[in-house]
Amino acid sequence: MDAKQIYQTLSEKFTGRIKQFQENTHPASVVVESDAIVDICSFLKRETELEFTSMISLSGVDLKDQGKMLVIYHLGSIRHKHKIALKVELDRNNPHVPTVEKVWPGANWYEREAYDLYGIVFDNHSDLRRILLPDDWEGWPMRKDYVYPKRYHTWDV
Amino acid sequence: MTENSKGYFKKMLDAVKSVFTGLGVTIGYGVSPGREVTQQYPEVKREPYDRFRGKLFVDINICTGCTACARICPVDAIVLKTVRDENKKLRPVVFDIDNARCIYCGLCVEACPVDNCLYFRKEYEFSSYSKDELISHFGLGELPQPDKPAADRPSPDMPAQAGPAKDQPVQGKTDETRKEEGK
Amino acid sequence: MAVVDERFMDLNMGPQHPSTHGVLRLLIKTDGEVVSRVTPYIGYLHRALEKIAERLTYPQFTPFTDRLDYLASMNCNLAYALTVEKLLNIEIPRRAQILRVIMAELNRISSHLIAFGSLSSDMGAFTPFLFGIREREFINDLFEMVCGARLTYNYIRIGGVAQDIPDGFIDKTKEFLDYFPPKIKEYNDLLSYNAIFIKRLANIAVISPEDALDYGVTGPNLRASGIKWDLRREEPYLMYNELDFDIPVGRGEMGRVGDAWDRYMMRIYEMEQSAKIVRQCIDMFQQGDHIAKVPKVLKVPAGEVYVRAENPRGELGFYLISDGSTKPYRLKIRAPSFANLSIVPKLSGGVMIADLVAIIGSLDIILPEIDR
Amino acid sequence: MIELINNIIGNIHSSTPMIRWLVYVMVIVISSVIVLSFALLYEGFATYAERKVAGDIQARIGPNRVGPYGLLQFVADGVKLLLKEDIIPFYADKWLFIIAPYIVFTASFAAFVPLSYSDHVYVANMNVGVLYIIAVSSVVSMAILMGAWGSNNKWSLFGGMRAVAQIVSYEIPIILSLLAAIIIPSSLDMKDIILYQSGGLGIFRWIIFNNPFTLLAFFIYFTAAIAEVNRTPFDIPEAESELVAGYHTEYTGMRFAFFFMAEYGDMFIVSAIAATLFFGGWQIPFINGVAMPLWLRETLQVVVFLTKIFVLIYVMMWIRWTLPRLRVDQLMELCWKYLTPIAFFDLIGASVWVLLFNGKGVYDILSALFVH
Q: What is the distance between the terminal CA atoms of chain D, rounded to a whole angstrom?
């Protein structure tokens, strides 16, 4: 099934909650509502002819000039060999999106990394802590407007 | 002999057999002398291949001061200051390569438009006790004022390895001798 | 004061520990030899490569991809170069493609040699580790002959390869290809089928196919669980579709499918296949230039692309968003070891401490690409 | 040695008890100094030999810098360890921490006493030689536990627990297999055992060839002995890749050297017992009958005895650089499920053989058949 058909089945199943279909990205991406992400993901995983068994990666993107924060889920299927990217647009000052940890346990660490570097809060995540940076680090380093701290405890950065 | 007791002895037999095959391999090395692959480092030095990316070296006389290398360097290890000299040509006053910061990726050597100006040497033994010793200065120093000669900074550039790389003047020269040639 | 669970003792394995394959800290809750829960702590090697990528131009970032998985930096360069070429959609000359496959597969062998050696020294046998290093030196000499470096090569560039190979390279590679296969047989006699080694690894930390897919485990670890998924075959890049090589899949020879021994054996079989690939590439060699025409000031057209390649440790993917300037807008690096390590807490309920070392060794994780 | 003392004291018998007591102490001191210097010298060369053998097996050169062919390497190591800072951990149990290495060394050194190096060269001719050595060598496990507990470190605690479990449980197979060998000469005195094995070209009357059960007893004994000495594949107490350094993690400088030397001392003892009991101690093979001056015969006997020991030590080192390490529960399983039951049946078999052929070995029976 190519991305177009996946988009059709998705928009039929979740009418209204699928915003947009972007053809020019590789793999093609579907912009969805942030609160529908869990249902969509479990649907994509359960559905036999879609069967997105593995979440390849989850990345946060900071679109500062559009005032938006993006979370992109790259999903792939082993059996059908097709790939799709789900995009969720969040408000930049208070980015919230429900966690998909229940669908793919592997997402746990990716979400912690997105939280750690971008400050995107994943609701009811099992233990949302910083994964790469020390726990008491202030600020979200990967944001475009991140200001480098002068000192961290006793060392100057 | 019940089933698992047969397994009991079979397992033991397999274990002993596999242990002895392993021992057979190592005794092959133990008995036959002269299979060493290691070398006695300080006495026997392995000659690196021609393209070995050792320490960077700049032939400052043919350097046009175009700062292509300084711009391409991903870690800004090259500090290059140029000044216009009397016949409008750019003169590289300061040309420092910080060997502690450099990651030896070779992007600068490819970016340099002049042949044999910036290249790697086969020298890999330049560890030192202080970081500023690792900065090699290739600069030509300030323009010589007409009345007093320029105070030339000593170049702690380590003498290169014996084998001359490319058509390289005899090693071990300090900046002064190189400057005389340049005049 | 947090309630201290006095039944269990907190034991810190790492960040400085002889067998954590890098700077990794495992907080183990154990009541003696048996481990009840493991929580990995990572981030000791975080260099913010993704932030650096946003500050450097495309060609400048290539040497940094060496430092992602420094045991397989040719493959990392390759994945990055493929990503940028996908957006540029330029045609890579055939000779450059063949060179890339040769270098990538040689690097796969040298990376698997380290995986084999470090797992064996974790299990207490130090000699196979040194045998592995001895073979790897041979490959290091080949790479030094081609690009001058022995670990971080910066050889595969956007559009092709940095320099063409010197003339002595092909014969030396053939010499290696004749020298290497009997060494694999020696490893098998010495270690793979050794009773103690099998007892230490068989049926340990079995990863079921569902768990492997749920946690995003890829590469030899996924294939050991019985799933035949290799990007060189499923999503062929370069000229892998023309090459004939088979994908080893876990068959549970010594225990259940997907146990630590299977993961170890995948790497031994893959080394043989990689040697076969390199031999075919040498026969397919042809004249041609080694790099496509790429402008010095490289402006990548705006767009988003996710490209992945089969690294020795799994699927390394680059998600690149470019805004048409000379610097990437966002470059997400999907590292295989990051996902492979995330399954360790699930595997390590009720194992012994010595098994924990076997689990880490059999997953063959490497920390620089986890922390980035 | 006792005869020596008696005849010295004999000819000054008229002297007061004070002098007699003084001479006795003086002789004890001299003999212990001699044996201690032999033990330390041997342990020095053993460390050098271990690294040379390891280098040889791993296609390396091994130490050859200090002294001719690196022979003085152990002197350099010793000086280095002496000059190393002697750290006692802050919360360590100071006295336990300090005493433990001395007890370990004295225990392993004390076992040098009952050995008989040749007809007249021995320290003390105990008639309970083998029993004394077994008793002394079990003190080692207690001392290791003291050291492990004293250094107040989680890793060394693991090492200590494992050491005790291993040494205590492997004494059972050792004792049983030694019993199977001792019932033949039916004497615990080393000298008598060796004298029993004389004759028959110096080889055929060895107890190992006495009957098939003693042959099996040797292999059980040797495996259990390697475990007793904590060497690979049983070096779980100081498993570098799991427990950092096991029970001697916190030890530095000379204290660590004591543990280190004790290990090599134990290796010597264990192979000395094997040589005495199974391979006919100092029986000179082939040319035993030839008349030769006393001193030449003595030195030849000592040389034969030491070569047998060093061959066995070479086998231990060879095994160490080949095999991986067992896990703790597999180690226990090997001891209780395999070695001990087989050792029991072996003992029964050996004693039945002694009953049937009233102590005569295969060689005696055959020679009896052919002679008349």
A: 42
Q: Cβ–Cβ of D61/B19 closer than 8 Å?
A: no
Domain-located, residue C17: yes
Quick: pLDDT tens for B26-62.
888 888 877 788 888 888 888 899 999 999 999 988 8
Count: domains in chain B: 2
C246 touches chain D (CB under 8 A): no
Query: Quick check: is B75 in a domain?
Result: yes
Question: Does B13 lie at the interface with D, CB-CB under 8 angstroms?
Answer: no
Mind giving me the DSSP string for A44-64? HHH-TTT---EEEEEEEEEET
Q: Is the pLDDT of residue D61 over 70?
A: yes
Interface probe with D: pick from B29, B31, B40, B43, most Cβ of D within 10 Å: B29
Q: Which amino acid is at C290?
A: H
Contact A72, A61 (CB under 8 A): yes
- H-type alpha helices, C215-252: 220-224, 231-234
- Whether D322 sits inside 8 A of C127 (CB atoms) is yes
Domains of chain A from N-terminus onward:
3-156 (3.30.460.80)
Q: Are residues B26 and B77 in the same domain?
A: no
**Contact B51/C145, CB-based, under 8 Å?**
yes
Residues in chain A predicted with pLDDT less than 70, given as ranges, are 157
Shared domain check, B115 and B29: no
Within an 8 Å CB–CB cutoff, is residue B26 touching chain D? Answer: yes
- Predicted local distance difference test score (pLDDT) of residue B176: 41
Locate the chain C residue with the closest alpha carbon to D235.
Answer: C124
Split at pLDDT 50, 70, 90, the class of D9 is low
Q: Is residue C102 part of a domain?
A: yes
Question: ipTM, 2 decimals?
Answer: 0.86
Q: What's the pTM? A: 0.90
CA nearest D52 in B: which residue?
A: B30
Q: Give the count of beta carbons closer than 10 Å to the beta carbon of residue B153.
A: 11
- Using CB atoms, which chains have 3+ pairs under 8 A with C? A, B, D
Tokens 């890793």 locate to D155
Q: Does B25 touch chain D (CB under 8 A)?
A: yes
Q: Do B38 and D319 touch (CB under 8 A)?
A: no
How many Å lie between the alpha carbon of C160 and the closest alpha carbon of chain D?
39
Residues of A with a Cβ under 8 Å from any C Cβ are 24-27, 29, 53-57, 59, 61-62, 72, 74, 78, 81, 83, 85, 104-106, 108-109, 117, 130-134, 141-142
In a 3-state reduction of DSSP, which class is residue C110? helix
Helix (H, G, I), strand (E, B) or coil at C269: helix
pLDDT in tens, C222-280: 999 999 999 999 999 999 999 999 999 999 888 899 999 999 999 999 999 999 999 99
Q: Is C154 within 8 Å of B106 when comparing Cβ atoms?
A: yes
Q: Residues B22, B89: one domain?
A: no
B24 with B83, same domain: the answer is no
B26 and B85 share one domain: no
Question: What's C152's domain CATH number?
Answer: 1.10.645.10
Whether chains A and C touch (3+ CB pairs under 8 A) is answered by: yes
* CATH number of domain containing B123: 3.30.70.3270
DSSP character at residue A118: H
Alpha carbon distances (Å) from B4 to B10, B12, B15, C202, D329: 9, 12, 16, 19, 20
Task: Please check whether residue C4 lies inside any domain of the structure.
Answer: no
Would you call A56 and C214 a contact, using CB atoms and an 8 Å cutoff? Answer: no
The range of the structural domain enclosing residue C165 comes to 9-371
Residues of D in contact with C202 (CB under 8 A): none
Angle value at C-alpha B37, between B31 and B41, nearest 5 degrees = 130
What number of C-beta contacts closer than 8 Å exist between A and C? 85
The whole domain housing B9 covers 1-38
Q: For chains C and D, count residue pairs whose Cβ atoms are closer than 8 Å.
A: 78
For A97, the 3-state DSSP assignment is: strand
Are the C-beta atoms of C187 and C268 separated by less than 8 Å?
A: yes
Residues B74 and B22 both lie in one domain = no
Residues B7 and B82 occupy one common structural domain: no
> Does D327 sit within 8 Å of C126, measured CB to CB?
no
Same domain flag for B66 and B21: no
